[in-house]
Amino acid sequence: MRTSELRKRRSSLTLAWDRHVGEASVPAAGTSGDVRPEIASSWERSAWHISPQVNEAPLANPGDASTEWESSPVCVAVRTIEAELRAVAADGDLVVAITDPDARILWTHGGSVMRRRAEKVNFVPGGRWDEQSVGTNALDLALRLDQTATVYSAEHFASCVHDWVCWAAPVHDPRTGRQLGVLDLSTTWDRAHPIGLATAGALARLVEREIQPAATAAAAPAPDGAPRAVLDLRLLGGASAQLNGRRLRLTRRQVEILALLALSSDGLELGELHAQLYGDRPVSKTTLKAEMSVLRAALGRRLTSRPYRIDMPVRCDVSEVLDHLRRGDVPGAVERYRGELLGWSDSPAIAEYRDFVAVAVRTALLAQSPPSAVLRYTQRVPYDLEPLERYAQADSRSTATYR
C-alpha cells in the first residue's frame, strides 16, 4: 500500500478511536461500523481493565521470563532458526517477539529503530501484552482467536502504540495442538504491507516444525508425580462442570461445547464442531473461535486445537450410562440416568445424542424390567409409564403362574 493510502486509513481509525475510546469511559455500542467486529469487542473488554492512555505494558520479573524461556519447548526451535528470525527483523526494521500462552513476552530481537521503540513501551522479555494489561493488540488477539491477527495503528486500545502495526500468529505443539505462545512481528504504521501477516504465519509454522516432541512432552502440564487435572461433567437432568472439584461458571453454549467434545473421543475440527453446535444457523466461525478461547482459559489451557480436544481425563455421566448398558447392567445405567441430556439445548448433534441415550435406556429397561430400576426410572421420567405397566403385567403373570 502507498503511504498516502496508509495515512488515510490511519486517520480514519484515529477518528474512530477518538469517538469510541478516547472520549468515552466505555466504548459505545455500534463501533462495528467503524472498525472490525473483533477490534470493537476487544475495545469494550479493554475499557473495563485499563486506561487508553496507558504508557507501557506491565513488566514482570525479567529473570522469571528468562527462566521460563529456557524451559520452553519453543526455545530450542527458535535457536535453530534464530538466524532467519534476526534477518527478517533486520531487513524489515521489525521487532520479532515470542510469548508464552498468556501473552507474556519471553524473547525478542529487533532492528535498531524498532528496538528503541519497543523498550519504551516494555515490548521486551517480561512485558505482559495480554488484553487486561495493555488493551487490544495482535498478540492477545491471535491467542484469543487461535489464528493469525493484525492490529494496525489506532486499532490498538492503548494510544502509546498507535504508531505501530503488528502481525501475530499462534504457535502450537505439533503433537497435541496445544497453544505454546505466539510469534509477533511489529513495525511502524507507515511500513505496513499485506505480506506481513503471511510472514508471521509462515514463521510460526517454521517454529512449529522445529519443536521436538520430547520437549513438549516434558513441558506438558501435570508431570509425573503431580495430581492430574480431571473434568467432571454432569449433563443428564441438569448441567454442571467441575475442574478438580471446583465448579466452573460456564454459559449454556460453553456447556454444549464441552458435551460435544466429551462425547467425541477423537476430537472435532472447527468445521465439525460448528456444524454440530449450530447446524444451519448463520453463526460465524469467528464467533465459535472466540467461545473456544474463553473456554480454553476456563480449563486452564487444557483444551487443544486442530482438532479441538479436552486435554485431560473427563468423567461424564452420559458415558457412564452407556458403559453400564454395554455391560448389561440396567440398574446401574438407570441409577445414573437423571433425565434428558441438556434438554434445553437446540444443538442438532446434542438432540441426536439426547434421543439415542433416552431410547437406549428405555429399550434396555423394557427388555429386563428389574423392579428397582423400573421404580427409579419412573421417578425420574414420570411421564413415561410403559416400563411400569410392562413390569406390572409381567409381575401379575408370574403371580398367576405361581398360584
Task: Chart the SSEs and their pairings.
Layout: H1 3-22, H2 37-47, H3 62-71, H4 73-80, H5 82-92, E1 95-99, E2 105-110, H6 112-120, H7 131-134, H8 138-145, E3 149-152, E4 164-172, E5 179-188, H9 195-210, H10 213-219, E6 231-234, E7 240-243, E8 246-247, H11 252-262, H12 270-278, H13 285-298, E9 303-304, E10 309-310, E11 314-316, H14 317-326, H15 330-336, H16 348-368, H17 371-380, H18 386-402
Helix pairs in contact: 4-9, 14-15, 14-16, 15-16, 15-17
Question: Can you walk through the features of this model?
Answer:
The chain is of the alpha+beta class and 403 residues long. Helix content is 50%, strand content 13%. The protein has 18 helices and eleven strands. It has a five-stranded antiparallel sheet with strand order 2-1-5-4-3, sandwiched between helices. The radius of gyration is 27 Å and the shape is elongated.
Task: Give a short synopsis of this structure.
The protein is built from 18 helices and eleven strands. With 403 residues, it is α+β, with helices and mostly antiparallel strands. The strands form three sheets. The chain has a five-stranded antiparallel β-sheet with strand order 2-1-5-4-3, sandwiched between helices. A four-stranded mixed β-sheet has the order 8-7-6-11. The chain has a two-stranded antiparallel ribbon with strand order 9-10.
